[in-house]
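Fold this sequence, please.
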Amino acid sequence: MKTDRDLERQLASIDRRGYPAYKGLRGTYDFGDFELDIAHVQGDPFAAPSQLAVYVPGDVSGLPACCRDAAHRRTATEDLLVRRFSKEAAQASFKVGGSGKSGFIGTSNPGPEILARSACEIAPDGAVMLRFEAGLPAHGRTIDARAAARMLLDLIPVCVERALMLDDAGRRAAQKAAELADDQRAVRSAMRERGLVAFVADGSVLPRSSGVSAKPLAGARPFTSPESMRVTLELPHRGRVRGMGIRRGITLIVGGGYHGKSTLLKALQEGVYDHIAGDGRELVATDETAMKLRAEDGRVVRAVDISPFINNLPDGRDTRSFSTEDASGSTSQAASTVEALEAGARTLLIDEDTSATNFMVRDALMEAVVAAEHEPITPFVERVRALWERHGVSCVLVMGSSGAFFPVADSVIQMDAYEVNDITERVRAVLADARLAGTHPEAPGLGVSAGKASETGEASEAGKASASSSSDQDAPASRPLELGGRLERCSTGRLGRRGRARGGDGAGTARHEHLKVRGRGRDGFSVGSYDADLRLVEQLVDAEQSAALAQMVRVVLEHGLLDGMRALRDVVDEAFRVLDEQGWEALSPYGDAACGLARPRPCELFAALNRLR
């Protein structure tokens, strides 16, 4: 293996030559305490930066065993090291100048969520691989070897030493990150045991400083659980922690405008990820399968069985396999709901403000004016109980203007100036008075004191009994909710024909004919001739997740997996199996992993594939 002195000599030999001479630097160099790998060199100073990596042996990194002996601890520690290196790189970046990206040093710059990233990997023995980018210096398109030597032989080693070779303070920080990961894992385990879809610890800070900032709002009121919903969890490091537990079933979040309803739901939808200490939401956890649903006017829909919600269209189209290039708000939300169930969501999160009104509710006056046989939409309010009682799918809904969901809810939370109140019994009394006055019919849920979720998370026997006693003929909608066919839906043949790489006719062929990938940050991407608009897939929290999705879709298309023969679930499972077995290299067209990718959830790959056009 070459050494840092060899690198110094090579740099001196190419000084003032044309920029392509930098490509001769590719290779691995021994710096004594670590190795520097120059994997890919940019074509000119204005192109994407070069891809580099450092390898620090376990006996040099100083990582305690408790930070690397379990997958969740390794992920938390990797996240910490990325943040440390990113901070050091920001201080060293552009200390040498030149044309274009000359002097740039950087790696992933995480938000408050803790995600598995290609930027860092820790081996069981404590060895650290940290991937980053660097803009090799030039003036015009002429190599500046002196500046490059300072960058590669001085600035980068300092970043490595300060970020990845841990002193006592660094080891304590890594241990705290691992302990927080233990506690977060314990919270999620306790949620499953107690039949909870979410937990919000007392003292959490939910509001953010602004609509474009993930930082906690200074001076915000700490979260306090209502006593009736408070649960106590025993965590391995923090000990006894109290907070609000939202049980499986149907939960409404209500209240006036600007009182914190959407803020709470936002915390819940992002609670599918763990958060760093100091974020304020580090002990806010939500069922990992939870999916936020909304209307998406104009989205593409392909071969989705939306008949549980939309049927008997005036033009006679079959809604059991519905396709459109330009869905309406109600159609898109119906498709997204069924797609979420296919993706395995056991919890749905919905905000009235971002939903199609005619998909959610239909009031009595409208039903009196427009007969049911002339309305193809069965609103969600008439399906939500069946989703829970027949399919075990919970729902948390924010409602600010309609009381239509009160009779079908299991519990109701009111937000009042960011204070949380359990008003379930008050709503039950109001509904009872309304029934006595003859102004509101009986319905499952609070309307007839239906059973709530059990400790195991299944629909209770009382709830099942109330469901069976209220037949489909008695319910407002006459069509039963049947989703089985959709859950085995196959991908479309059209995508399969267009998706194969040139010259290939199935999986494992034409691996060197790569489709071009173009990213648009968190908003979406294009792969070859396909485009995916992910702007309204709200639980994507990092542009690196979108970048990983783009590469996963590329692999799926190049291998012809969307051939019309496989269920979409099988396609997604195969993509994640390859990622798990082969690592980040599986998502590189050239075999070398680089920083810039973060692991998405399987449901986000479902969403990306379902939005390809």
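Confidence is low (pLDDT under 50) at residues 448-480, 484-512. The radius of gyration is 27 Å.
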